[in-house]
Amino acid sequence: MSPAGWTLDVALVTLILGLAWRLLWTRNLFEAVVLFVAFGLTLSLAWVRLGATDLALAEAAVGAGLTGALFMHARQRLAEKLAERAEEEVDG
Amino acid sequence: MAEAYMALAAFLVVNVGAGLWRVARGPTPADRMLAAQLFGSTGVAVLLLLAEAADAPALRDVALVFALLAVVAGIAFVKLGWSQDPLAEDDHAD
Amino acid sequence: MRRALAYGTAWWVLVEGRSDTWVAGIIAAALALGARRLLDRTAAPVPVRIDVPGLLRFVPFFLRESVRGGVDVARRALHRRLPIAPALIPYPLTLRTRPAQIFFVNAVSLAPGMFVAAWTGDVVLVHVLDSGVNVAPRLRALEARIAAMLGEPAIPPWPPGSGPPAPPWR
Amino acid sequence: MPISTWLSIPLLLAGAFFFLGGTIGMLRFPDVYTRLHALTKADNLGLGLITGALVLEADGWAVRAKLLLIWILVLAATATLCHIVARAALERGIRPWRRP
Asked: Which chains touch C (3 or more CB pairs under 8 A)?
């Protein structure tokens, strides 16, 4: 393996592990979703390096894009529900 | 030449890693949304370089998907998930 | 017919000129034509006429502005003392049609040191990286280029002595 | 080495430089609006230069057209995204930083 290719792989692995670590420990849901999308896109680059181009396409489109948007929406709904409940408690 | 492309791609991935530090750091959700832009341009550059280095034209299609996806993710962040809510503790810049 | 040809060319570009995919290409182009028909029927069609010489003059202008924008921001970012003085500046648009305004708003994002941060009616709020630079003439020049490209009526020059209207923000 | 390689190497290096500038700006600039400046302009130019180098090296006009198409697509995408992120941030009441 070429030195540049090796560096690229090490950088990708470090990035994936670092993102996963931060993702697991953050307490901010918005950050978690953004990191999830970044993680998916980095993983997609890793699939490219492993020669699985089809998998890379699927990971980018579904793993990062679609799931990321769904998570975002879910987070928003959760926040609205929590706000409603807080209001009810104040009223009652 | 392939080795030069590969080296540049490695440099760009390290560059994204440095940029992601800002995404993790915040402080506002808008700062975190910059991740979409970062991956939009840098990810496409990396994929185009790899397509040329590894002689894999299919990677240019992946680059196309990355470009479209960055927009979708960015708009999803703005439209679906960013309004006042009790979940966000550190939303306000000071 | 011209549209069919355009979609065919798009397919040729996407498959990077491989000739063994022409069956799928014809099907895809036909589907694209159908989708376009459907869109034209549901949404009000926006008339956009592109002036070809105007477009050809716009491309080098745009490339030059992109290079200047990139060099400017990289210089400021790498400078030891970070020489920036950002500000929000209201700018009244003279472009009147919607497509031209949309194009302008996006093109400003790529010009040196500025982008449109808000947009209400015919006034945009431009965020500039350095408030010491007078951006109004440069924005006016950009508007004139876009007007020439999209076949809009010519932009009148600044009325002497009259400033922009009071911004609705603040 | 063919002449196109001699032309494309400086383009690649310049592209790398602007990507670096964009990231440094993103880390150093004080608020989200100024960071948007750094990211959109520097990265777009960086991608443009790298695409230019690849266009010189590519074989076939279809591939060249595709590379340019991808660049234009990214340009349009980042320009729009820049605008909507800035607008959303303003609506949310994030004040632009001013030099004190």
From this structure: B, D
Residue in the block written with tokens 């918005």: A30
**Quick one: residue C34, left, alpha or beta (phi over 0 = left, psi -120 to 50 = alpha)?**
alpha
Q: Is residue D96 part of a domain?
A: no
Could you tell me the pTM of the whole model? 0.86
Confidence of residue C23 (pLDDT cuts 50, 70, 90): confident
In a domain, D50, yes or no: yes
- pLDDT tens per residue across span B59-88: 888 888 888 888 888 888 887 766 655 455
Are D58 and D70 spatial neighbours (Cβ–Cβ below 8 Å)?
Answer: no
On whether residue D57 sits in a domain, the answer given is: yes
> In this structure, is residue B66 part of a structural domain?
yes
The number of folded domains in chain D is 1
CB D56 within 8 A of CB D11: yes
pLDDT class for A16, splitting at 50, 70, 90? very high
**Are C110 and D17 within 8 A, CB to CB?**
no
CA distance B36 to A69: 12
In order, the DSSP letters of A20-56 are HHHHHH---HHHHHHHHHHHHHHHHHHHHHTT-HHHH
Q: Tokens for C102?
A: 């949309």
Contacts of A23 (CB under 8 A, 6+ apart): A32, A35, A36, A39
Determine the distance from the C-alpha atom of residue B9 to the mean position of all C-alpha atoms in its chain, rounded to a whole number: 14
Chains with ≥3 CB–CB distances under 8 Å to B: A, C, D
Residue B31, domain extent: 2-83
Residue D75 inside a domain? The answer is: yes
Give the burial class of C102: count Cβ atoms within 10 A of its Cβ; 0-12 exposed, 13-18 middle, 19 or more buried. Answer: middle
β-bridge pairing C114-120 and C87-92: unpaired
Closest in C17, C85, C88 to D60, CB measured: C17
Chain A meets chain C (3+ C-beta pairs below 8 A): no
CB contact set of D81 (below 8 Å; sequence gap of 6+): B36, B37, B40, B70, B71, B74, B75
Q: What residues in chain D have their Cβ under 8 A from chain B's Cβ atoms? A: 5, 9, 12, 15-16, 19-20, 22-23, 26-27, 31-32, 35-36, 39-40, 43-44, 46-47, 50-51, 54, 57-58, 63, 66-67, 70, 73-74, 77-78, 80-82, 84-85, 88-89, 92-95
